[in-house]
Design a protein that fits this description.
The chain has 171 residues and is an alpha+beta fold. Helices cover 20% and strands 37% of the residues. It is built from four helices and eight strands. It has an eight-stranded antiparallel beta barrel. Helix 2 packs antiparallel against helix 3.
Length: 171
């Protein structure tokens, strides 16, 4: 399990990025809109000035997917906070059912969870996908439709779901 640094960048609001750190960061561009996510695995955030705020994400869980070894062309991220009284249940649900279940869906290369201890949203669930159609597959939808999912999901707050594609520079 590896902690990461995350930079969220909206090109519409902040313009294009430049810098040597771009070669070392894994970059994803939102399928819709101008949002880009850059991940760096160094011990400290890239030192470039004027690129925005890097967020430290501590890895909670990392599960190899059914399609491990294939190129992940897409990256699906669910960011959320949760009501405090549901925090333990959310973590148990992700660890025991949800993340392993979605990792087992054909087309999923890897599933991982992170926590941002200093900010909001607090939780990040990240799915590297060889095929973005995995998201609508019967296997994926079955994992999302469990009774446990129905109990936990209403406690989500400040939730954002984004599908990204691998940038041309990262291939």
């Amino acid at each position: 399990m590896q902690d990461l640094w995350l930079l969220k960048h909206d090109a519409c609001m902040a313009g294009p990025l430049a810098g040597s750190w771009l070669r070392e960061a894994r970059s994803w561009l939102a399928v819709e809109g101008h949002l880009a996510y850059f991940y760096a695995s160094s011990l400290t955030p890239p030192a470039e000035r004027g690129v925005g705020e890097w967020r430290r994400l501590a890895c909670l869980q990392d599960v190899p997917g059914a399609s491990t070894g294939r190129l992940a062309t897409h990256h699906y991220v669910v960011e959320t906070d949760v009501l405090p009284e549901f925090e333990d249940e959310l973590n148990a649900w992700y660890a025991q059912e949800h993340l392993p279940g979605l990792a087992a869906v054909p087309g999923t290369v890897r599933a991982a969870r992170y926590i941002d201890l200093a900010g909001s949203p607090r939780y990040y669930a990240c799915y590297d996908l060889a095929d973005p159609a995995a998201l609508g597959s019967p296997a994926w939808l079955a994992v999302r439709a469990t009774p446990w999912s129905s109990r936990v999901r209403p406690a989500f707050r400040n939730t954002r779901r984004t599908m990204f594609r691998l940038t041309a520079a990262a291939r």
